[in-house]
Amino acid sequence: MKDETAQQGLLISPIKNGTVIDHITGGEALNVLKIIGITGTTHECLSVATNVKSRIMGKKDIVKIENRELREEEVDRIALIAPNASINIIRDYKVFEKKGVTIPALLVGIVRCPNPGCISNTNEPIQSRFEVVPNGLHCLYCDWVITRDITGHII
Amino acid sequence: MTHIISIRDLKREEIDFLLSEAGRIQERCFDEHALNGKILALLFFEPSTRTRMSFEAAMARLGGTSLSVGSVEASSMAKGETLADTIRVVSGYADAIVLRHPKEGAARLASEFASVPVINAGDGAGQHPSQTLLDLYTIRQSMPLERIRIGLLGDLRYGRTAHSLAYALSLYHATIFSITPTGLELPDALVRELAAHGTEVICCDNVEDVVRDLDVLYVTRIQRERFPDSASYFKVASSYRITPELLTGVKDHLIVLHPLPRVDEIDPRVDSLPYARYFEQSWNGIPVRMAMLQRVMK
Ligand SMILES: [Zn+2]
């Protein structure tokens, strides 16, 4: 573990306050940024490392975001594309809180239903609702099951 | 409060209860005043005259009154009102709502906003539980539902009637023969779900090969719009046509069902054979819907 940390140290320097998302599935870091709403035009101070060698995962991505702590629904979205991710809240250079991500049984307002005929894609005053099933995400309105490219359907 | 949105919401015991109630109703053991003073709102955002009339007739036979929305064009919906608002308003007028809507999941949404029970009478290509219940009821008039061997014939990929029926029959350990043209088989996700209930699905592309094995043959329309041109449609349609000749040597108790309207999947000469039950199936809509209305409003 020590080696790994040392290697990371070269890539990304520690942050004073903010969030470190570690153990992201290799290559998914940019999708993680997308789903928590960070784009080229937002102002977060950010470090990203992709395809870093990891003894546990083979390859992993790491994201450090300064001065921002993640909200619960952001953590839920990350779980969908990086189920092994761990989230470290940093305060004053120290890990203040460390948590894993778990895919919630019910996803409300997080994923858009791909079925154009689904009532959740109209201007009704509702949020999309999906339950997590073994082969994907099941729309609780129209029964559509998303099995592939979940990232592409995240709102 | 009880809504009836999808056949999947009903446990086997609840289905059995509704079917027994329908049976009692058909034997005229029912209270004609059971729903005296109750009002049923029929919200049909797409036309389906038979389903609407059948709910109206069922309500009238139980002593209740129905309110019908006129045409969709004349309603607030056309002015851009959300379904959620329509449902909240109509909940104040009636004791239950029957909804037919072009969007899938509309009935589920309605049940979230309604303060009275909602019965789904078809949402888009989605659920239509009263159809499934009357299919089950018709089968049960001829044989016990447990472990039947049923052939589902037609477009099973897009035909949701067949999906709900297959799902419901899996609760009764049926064996399902899926008889379809290539590309129109039951969706994989549904087949896996049926398998999880211990229901075997046997795929075949020729009804002749299996018809002598069946207790029930459930015929659905093969939709023309699923084919690239009319020549390939007619080729397929003619090989999925039920004729008296095809039915030689079948089991004596075989019944042939069809949710109607039919186009030319069933030769009219079959109508006079003892196997034909599709008109009874359609009439059975009344006792089954009476049982549903009593269930949600009493
Ligand atoms: Zn949907």
What does this entry look like structurally?
Chain A is of the alpha+beta class. Chain A has helices at residues 2-11, 29-35, 72-81, and strands at residues 18-25, 46-54, 58-66, 86-91, 94-100, 106-108, 129-133, 136-139, 145-146. Chain A is 17% helix and 34% strand. The relative contact order of chain A is 0.17. Chain B is of the alpha/beta class. In chain B, 38% of the residues lie in helices and 15% in strands. Chain B is built from 11 helices and 9 strands. In chain B, the strands form 2 sheets. In chain B, strands 7-6-5-8-9 form a 5-stranded parallel sheet. In chain B, helix 1 crosses helix 11, helix 5 (129-142) crosses helix 6 (160-170) and helix 6 runs parallel beside helix 7. Chain B is globular, with a radius of gyration of 19 Å. The termini of chain B are close together. The model of chain B has no long low-confidence stretch (mean pLDDT 92). At the A-B interface, loops of A face helix 4 of B.
| SSE-based structural type of chain B | alpha/beta
Low-confidence stretches of chain B: none
Number of strands of chain B: 9
How many H/I helices of chain B? 11
Query: Biggest interface, and residues per chain?
Result: A-B, 19 and 20 residues
- Which structural class best describes the helix and strand composition of chain A? alpha+beta
Number of DSSP E strands of chain A: 9
- Written as H for each helix and E for each strand, in order along the chain, the element string of chain B is HEHEHEHEHEHEHEHEHEHH
Share of residues in helices of chain B: 25-40%
Identify the overall geometry of chain B: globular
